[in-house]
Design goal:
Length: 320
């Protein structure tokens, strides 16, 4: 492919959404609303064109009003291109877009890709996923974690709380931060483990709370602490709503009380609260390697409907 045939540029405005969505992906139906709500910006949505043909695209997602994006969550190439051209177009596009769309210095936002649960089983699907991973790798990123995306729908068969725990609202932020800090001891979550390589347990809990939990507009009255009959806390669950769905945002069992199946009770309580709001579905996620939590979700009636591939850069740069 002649590189001079390519035009690499950001979108000129919301009117180019149809152009951007010419390549298929599960997030296409959210793109227009994300733009309208400020979660995406045309300057952070790039395309690779040959004439009027869309050969590649890349886009970052962030919170409305935030200065910097949080995720590179759209990266696609035309799968009809030859194998070398697919990757080369994607690399040229991503390198060019990163140099312009992202703030100077620091670690670029992580790459996130939603894929079918069985993505490794079909040759075409596997090739498409691995092409995109290869593009990201050639700009300096490396695989970080694979996660299960889970969903509960009304009518699903679910375990009920066993009645051995009592549930009450979280007293205040200080109590929740204490519980979050304690639950980080021995965590199997890759993001939390990564945080703990760079900061203390308390700092990691505060960062998670401020970046995620504190931003949910849903009622904090939904948040629950589970206690034994004597009032001793054993864990907590954070049911919430994000910009798209009702979610189980966080669930933690304190180290001294693990191995008793309390995650089942906590998950059942969180699901009960959200189901009581009449929601059409509840979403959740957990690392592929976190088998205890994945099994708890399965017992609670959640099914895996997708996976998420996450890759990260340790520095700005390019390789290969």
């Amino acid at each position: 492919m002649n590189p001079n045939d390519l035009t690499l540029r950001p979108l000129t405005g919301d009117q180019e959404v149809d152009l951007f969505n010419q390549l298929p992906y599960v997030l296409n139906e959210e793109i227009a609303d994300d733009l309208a709500q400020g979660r995406r910006r045309p300057a952070r949505m790039w395309v690779a064109l040959r004439g009027n043909r869309l050969l590649g695209r890349a886009a970052w997602w962030g919170r409305a009003g935030a200065d910097a994006p949080l995720l590179l969550d759209v990266l696609d190439v035309d799968d009809a291109l030859t194998a070398p051209d697919r990757v080369d177009v994607g690399v040229r596009l991503l390198r060019t877009a990163m140099a312009t769309a992202l703030p100077e210095g620091g670690e670029p936002p992580r790459y996130s890709r939603f894929v079918p649960d069985d993505w490794r089983d079909g040759p075409a699907t596997r090739q498409a996923v691995e092409d995109r991973m290869r593009i990201v790798e050639r700009t300096g990123a490396r695989p970080f974690v694979e996660r299960l995306r889970l969903e509960w729908r009304p009518g699903a068969t679910a375990a009920r709380p066993a009645g051995r725990l009592a549930f009450r609202p979280v007293d205040d932020d200080a109590e929740l931060l204490d519980l979050m800090t304690a639950a980080l001891d021995g965590t199997l979550d890759a993001h939390s483990r990564d945080d703990l390589t760079r900061m203390s347990d308390r700092a990691a809990a505060v960062a998670h709370y401020e970046k995620e939990l504190a931003r949910y507009a849903s009622p904090r009255e939904w948040w629950r602490v589970a206690t034994r009959p004597d009032g001793t806390p054993v864990g907590f669950v954070i049911p919430a709503r994000n910009d798209y769905n009702a979610i189980i945002a966080y669930l933690g069992v304190l180290p001294a009380h693990r191995g008793n199946g309390y995650a089942d009770d906590l998950l059942a309580e969180g699901t009960r609260i959200l189901a009581g709001q009449g929601v059409p579905r509840i979403r959740a996620s957990t690392d592929l390697g976190n088998a205890p939590m994945a099994n708890a979700f399965a017992r609670a009636g959640y099914v895996t409907f997708q996976r998420e591939i996450v890759m990260r850069w340790h520095r700005r740069g390019a390789e290969g």
